[in-house]
TrEMBL record, chain A:
One of its GO terms (biological process) is chemotaxis. Keywords: Chemotaxis, Hydrolase. SUPFAM superfamilies: CheC-like. This is CheC-like protein domain-containing protein. It comes from the Bacteria. Gene3D superfamilies: CheC-like. Residues 11-46, 107-141 form the CheC-like protein domain.
Automatic annotation (TrEMBL), chain B:
InterPro entries: CheY-like_superfamily, Sig_transdc_resp-reg_receiver, ST_Response_Regulator. This is Two-component system response regulator. Residues 4-119 form the Response regulatory domain. Keywords: Phosphoprotein.
Amino acid sequence: MQESRGLSPLQLDALREVGNIGSGNAAVALSTMVDKKVLLSVPRASLVPLVKVSDLVGGAETPVVGVYLHISGDASGSMLLLLADSSAAELAHLMVADPEEELTTVEQSALQETGSILAGSYLNALSQMTGILLRPSVPGFAMDMAGAIIDFILVEISQSEDYVLVIETEFDISQHKIRGHLILFPDLGSLDIILGRLGVSG
Amino acid sequence: MAPTVLIVDDALFMRMMIRDILSKDGFEVVGEAENGVEAVERFKEVKPDLVTMDIVMPEMDGIEAVKQIMKFDPNARILMCSAMGQQPLVVEALEAGAKDFIIKPFQPSKVIEAVEKALKD
């Protein structure tokens, strides 16, 4: 089954452009929220075996804060903001002046809202690019090992698949040592719609 | 008398931020709600001059809440505040009766500008 779904270099390039435009818009949003410069990596778009997804974000054991949401509408999928613990704490402190070391309720809410706004901006750009409506769900929030959070999301989207399509960008607010990942997992069933709208259907 | 505002957003952080922006500029925040169902109930109780309304919320989303509030009071002034700036949703919200739509994240000055404009309409 995997072979029949092989994506051409042109299609992968188009999906990278999705990552580029989506995360570009999300980076502008993040930059506005914290009033700092946000740098982005070149996005990756690839079909990744389920067991390898957490390698993309520094390994399954990395303690992280994750904000995740589901996408419905004309195409479906999931979106995930992952921040290493130390980055999450730094980012929370930038938004909420709070001397406590543990994440407070307000700081958790700020991180959750950050995930929601970044996903919203990403999907706004993607919607504008493709003309399809993408509705995000209410965001979930988790503090756990990266592997546990990714498994939780993949269980819902992968079902019988061994591979998942990952469009991933790393962002960086270097003066505050904040790094994170923004990942879009389009459902493989929605891929034809997205590729069609991008003008690169198979 | 200061104009009264009801803030609707599921994120505690965002409610605090909007409350802060509006209070500093002389508005009176008379209530908060964290989902659409609560928003409709609060609206009936406090009858604010203006509502700021998020879209993606549990229980009932903001667009449905706009519809229900407008049914109760066709003169209600509602300002959408959402990260979801996709054209079809903006149109849906405005058709439901919202006065304006601001996309998160926003600068405090944009919020004040939009609130003042919605109150003048």
